[in-house]
């Protein structure tokens, strides 16, 4: 497949991702329960929401704006893994002894973000098997997004910046 074909496929994938929320697996009731625990915070364009290596003790919910999740290389280049838009959930909760964010999250636009502490998530999951199952689906989806991005970069390389900010 030529570089142009890859860009077309990536473009279509990002268009689809932008049109659907990564929280679609949550029932309305369970998503509302998560939202009820969050504290809303404003982030100006270009602000770091968290850095790779920070303690991974929160999840984030995009109320308004666009967030970029990326990994920085030793040569100073950034590898963008995801863009999150309204109604998307992002972040990591430490498990199995690894308690740091693997990526950096920055606001691409002025953003309104709901911050959900790990303790609140744990309490909700412990008392709600349905939410626990939906949360596992969300973790699987996020892992799949990352694996697809890494596969595409490995096989096709980064031919140009997509999607544009």
UniProtKB/TrEMBL annotation:
Top-rank taxon: Bacteria
Domain Cyclic nucleotide-binding: 22-125
Pfam family, one: cNMP_binding
Cellular component GO terms, alphabetical: cytosol
Keywords: Activator
Record-linked PROSITE patterns: CNMP_BINDING_3 (PS50042)
Example GO molecular function: DNA-binding transcription factor activity
PANTHER family linked to this entry: CRP FAMILY TRANSCRIPTIONAL REGULATORY PROTEIN, REGULATORY PROTEIN YEIL
Protein name: Cyclic nucleotide-binding domain-containing protein
């Amino acid at each position: 497949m030529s570089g142009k074909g890859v860009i077309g496929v990536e473009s279509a994938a990002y268009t689809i991702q932008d049109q659907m929320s990564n929280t679609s697996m949550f029932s309305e009731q369970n998503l509302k329960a998560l939202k009820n625990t969050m504290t809303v915070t404003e982030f100006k364009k270009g602000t770091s929401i968290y850095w790779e290596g920070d303690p991974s003790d929160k999840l984030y919910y995009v109320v308004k704006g666009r967030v970029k999740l990326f990994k920085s290389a030793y040569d100073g280049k950034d590898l963008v893994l995801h863009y999150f838009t309204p109604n998307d959930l992002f972040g990591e909760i430490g498990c199995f002894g690894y308690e740091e964010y693997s990526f950096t999250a920055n606001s691409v636009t002025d953003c309104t973000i709901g911050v959900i502490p790990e303790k609140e998530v744990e309490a909700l999951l412990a008392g709600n098997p349905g939410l626990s199952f939906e949360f596992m689906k969300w973790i699987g989806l996020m892992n799949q997004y990352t694996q697809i991005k890494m596969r595409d970069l490995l096989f096709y390389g980064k031919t140009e910046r997509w999607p544009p900010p």
